Amino acid sequence: MALADQAPLGARMTTAAAPGRSWIERIPAGWWITAFILLALPLVANNFWLFQVMGWSFILGMIAVSLTFLAGYGGMVSLLQMSIAGLAGYMVAILGPSGTTSISLGLAWWIVLPAAFLVAAIAATLFGALAVRTEGIYTIMITLAIAAAFFYFTRQNYTIFNGYSGFNLVLPPRLFGVNWRDPVPFYYLCLGCATLCYGAVVYISRSPFGLALQGVRDNPRRMAALGFNVTAHRVAAHALASVFASTGGILLVWQNAQIAPGTIGIPAAIDVLVVAVIGGMRRPLGAFVGAFIYVILQVFSPDVLGAFGFSAERFKLIIGIGFLAVVLFSPDGVLGLWDRWRARTARRVDPLTGVPR
After folding, report:
1. What whole-number distance in Å separates Cα of residue 213 and Cα of residue 134?
2. Which residue from 45, 220, 300, 302 could staple onto 312, CB 3.0 to 4.6 Å apart?
3. Residue 215 falls within a domain, yes or no?
4. Model-wide pTM > 0.90
């Protein structure tokens, strides 16, 4: 009997029907429900939830998805993503208008934004070229060293980065007569950018470059023997990841209306890694799930801890315990727990009739 004939009847019917379905029909119902909730959220949520909670979640998710792209598809764990995001944010403050008029050039947004992405991509390419020549813990250490060096450089340089004070009153341009820093427009701006970043990662992962990058991750020697330039693919991955991190960095500057060295400090770099691990590094969705969990704990845990007489500074302890729990019990993050629960549930259902066993 052929292998296809050995499959359950329901699976064969699904497989046979799949080619005739449009791409819209192939999207799971859960995605449509999630999209509807996110689009309709401003109708029921207040400005705090839209601007602070959801906006910050999308921004942090975009920075974390750049790490997910590098680690999940390229096998490269980098602690540089917050630095790349901060560099793009600094470029917006330096080249565009801000409250620090003695340094900011006040150029138009259509010059500032491409320049910010370009500078961040060049930096990511140069730093990536150094990092890809190492492996494992050495990659983490060299990216951490570069992130620390960039932090202290911005803190001590007053000519370009305005030192410890940084830049304030860095506001988004008023396009189409809309103030994009208002809670509802800013929410939709972040939602749109997060959707584009997520879709880009999914598309790239299925493209010839993405498949080659995953081959480099799994067996670099074999890919080199097949004629692929392993180093070039890894460096290009760093350059592509900078686009996602830069998008989050620019939105973060607009959300806070300022940027300072503390934005790109070592704790912030570690937080991006924690977010990616909590959500799950194997899929880009995990970055946004982990970001939402992190932001919820960051925002509301001080109130909960205060109610029990603990200091709000214990928030990091809760994050650390959660991080250890995820690493120990679900290396694939929260999405891994969800997958295991679905698999366990599916085993309890008859594949032919759909009736629980």
Report:
1. 17
2. 302
3. yes
4. no
pLDDT in tens, 59-102: 999 999 999 999 999 999 999 999 999 999 999 999 999 999 99
Give the closest residue to 182 by CA, choosing from 167, 172, 194.
Answer: 172
Q: Which of 111, 17, 22, 127 is nearest to 66 (CA)?
A: 127
Q: Where are the alpha helices (DSSP H) in the chain?
A: 9-17, 29-40, 47, 55-68, 74, 81-95, 109-131, 137-156, 183-206, 208-218, 220-225, 230-256, 266-279, 285-307, 315-329, 333-347
Structure token pair of residue 340? 């295991």
The one-letter amino acid code at 172 reads P
pLDDT at 16 (0 to 100): 42
Range of the domain at 76: 44-347
Q: What percent of the chain has pLDDT over 70?
A: 86
Which phi-psi region, left, alpha or beta, contains residue 266 (left: φ > 0; alpha: ψ -120 to 50)? Answer: alpha
112: amino acid identity, one letter: V
Q: What is the CATH number of the domain that holds 190?
A: 1.10.3470
* Count of domains for the chain: 1
